[in-house]
Design goal:
Length: 544
């Protein structure tokens, strides 16, 4: 009769007389000329002690089963009357683990059995053997050190089967040690432990393999911090303390990426580690007992940037701090809002410094001062304060708190007076601030009251007309097309009578200086139609 356990790869000789299969166990190699013996492929073997090997995974050596009935354990899914034989094609591979895509050893056909998650109560399964005459229990398993079969079932399907030493498992994991001890009270056979709903089979396998490693830190160094966090979670779940300590020491000593930091933070929120190294990691994850609040620290950073001396460093720090304080930044999602009072206090300080610098610049004749070498330093200092004010304006706009800055800038009568008597090289710096306010107001980024809009335009619109040519030549990042469009839109938000005065000032200036003035022709046409056309004519003209 054809032996169903013989592998398909073995050649068949139909014309030759078959000899009965030998019961002598051959060496297990990759050729698989003879399938290895296992509880699912029983064979009669002489009673002898198996040869011990260094590998912690080996094929199971079956022994003669007794006639005793199968003893049952709490929460065990196995039922002897429902036991089915594993297909010989699914014999464990000669490697250390054998992946199984679909575990056919689920022996309850009426429906799936739900099991508690590791580490609380993994399900111990009895060592069973199906013989031709029925189901029996091993009363004397000659299994050597490999006397535990660990069956891992993945949460999303698939599985792994590992044959291990009960001594190694018990020594390293108190969870598995308790399960094995409970089983040994009633049986001496192969102990089966099933672990359901494993999140990551590979990580669980790697964690078990660490039990056979003498130098766990070296292994963790090879796999990296991201994998070490997964191993730490599994080790803590099965109470593998030697691995937990090694993982904590390794993670405390290495730098983390943002993804690894977030993953480690989630793990520390879910599990508690009572070790000094864990406290060191927590100190890196959480800001405990900080003397300065986030708002106070933000104020210090902003103030440091505005007082920075080196231009290159200042520009680099501006980009850094603005990115940190930006509402769209990943760092600001859970932080409290920016302190408006602190930022405006720094704004007023910059404006006060600007007033002092302009007083120094207008102290003597511009023609005399421009000839001096130190005048270039003075102009650079003025430009620095203007850059600071514009940078603060951008931060306030991002937090929708810039409306009050319009009132502050409108009330700078001293700056306005010095603008009239300053050199164009100096005074156009003031118009850079005005230009940014016009753009924010004309594009809808800043929603000011009617009085604030009117006050800003009445005060700074005419100085802008004078400095527009200088702004075109020294843009310093200013979008002139956007400025022209925003000035026209801002004018159109005023009452028609106020629009009339300002548009006529623009018309006179443009007729004299041409492109040295902003081109507000489009907005002027809209004002004309709204002022002098009525009814359907107005509607038709605006539609066109």
């Amino acid at each position: 009769m054809h032996d169903p356990t013989r592998l398909k790869s073995q050649p068949q000789h139909h014309n030759r007389r078959r000899e009965p299969p030998s019961h002598h166990r051959r060496a297990w190699c990759c050729s698989f000329t003879v399938p290895p013996h296992s509880p699912e492929n029983p064979a009669v073997v002489p009673a002898q002690n198996p040869k011990k090997t260094q590998s912690f995974l080996k094929p199971e050596v079956p022994t003669k089963s007794s006639s005793n009935s199968l003893s049952s354990f709490p929460n065990s899914p196995l039922n002897p009357s429902r036991l089915t034989r594993i297909d010989p094609r699914r014999i464990l591979s000669p490697g250390r683990v054998s992946p199984i895509d679909s575990i056919n050893e689920t022996l309850n056909p009426t429906g799936p059995v739900s099991f508690p998650e590791i580490p609380k109560s993994p399900t111990p399964v009895d060592c069973e053997q199906q013989a031709s005459g029925g189901v029996g229990v091993r009363d004397d398993c000659s299994l050597g050190i490999f006397d535990v079969r660990l069956n891992l079932k993945g949460k999303n399907g698939g599985g792994l089967v590992l044959e291990l030493s009960s001594e190694v498992l018990s020594t390293n994991s108190s969870v598995f040690g308790d399960l094995i001890a409970d089983y040994r009270k009633n049986s001496r056979g192969l102990c089966r432990i099933e672990v359901p709903d494993v999140e990551n089979l590979g990580v669980f396998r790697d964690t078990i393999e660490l039990m056979f490693e003498d130098d766990i830190p070296r292994k963790l160094h090879r796999v990296g911090a991201y994998r070490a966090i997964d191993v730490l979670e599994v080790s803590a779940g099965i109470k593998f303390n030697r691995s937990v300590l090694s993982c904590l020491k390794y993670l405390e000593a290495v730098p983390w990426t943002e993804e690894e930091e977030e993953k480690l933070r989630r793990l520390f929120n879910k599990m508690k580690f009572d070790h000094e190294t864990a406290r060191d990691i927590s100190a890196r994850l959480y800001a405990l007992d900080m003397t300065d609040s986030q708002q106070t620290l933000s104020k210090q950073l902003v103030w440091s940037v505005t007082t920075c001396v080196d231009a290159n460093s200042r520009n680099e720090l501006k980009s850094l701090v603005k990115g940190l304080l930006c509402k769209s930044s990943v760092y600001e999602k859970d932080c409290s809002d920016l302190n408006k009072v602190d930022i405006f206090a720094i704004c007023l300080s910059c404006i006060s410094s600007l007033v002092s610098l302009l007083e120094e610049a207008t102290a003597t004749s511009p023609s005399v001062k421009l000839a001096k070498k130190e005048d270039r330093t003075l102009i650079d200092r003025i430009s620095k304060q203007v850059d600071n004010i514009i940078w603060l304006l951008e931060i306030l706009l991002d937090h929708q708190m810039a409306e009050d800055l319009v009132d502050i800038w409108t009330k700078q009568s001293q700056l306005l007076a010095m603008h009239k008597c300053s050199s164009p090289l100096v005074r156009y710096e003031l118009s850079r601030v005005t230009a940014m306010l016009f753009i924010a107001m004309g594009t809808g980024k800043m929603h000011c009251r009617s009085e604030a809009r009117s006050g800003l335009l009445q005060t700074w619109f005419r100085p802008m007309l004078l400095d527009f040519g200088w702004l075109q030549r020294c843009k310093k990042g200013l979008d002139m097309k956007a400025l022209e469009e925003a000035m026209g839109q801002a004018l159109l938000t005023l009452p028609l009578k106020e629009q009339y005065v300002l548009f006529m000032d623009w018309f006179k200036c443009f007729s004299k200086h041409g492109t040295e003035c902003p081109n507000l022709s489009k907005s002027f046409q809209i004002w004309w139609r709204r002022s002098f056309l009525r009814g359907s004519e107005t509607h038709a003209s605006e539609s066109r």
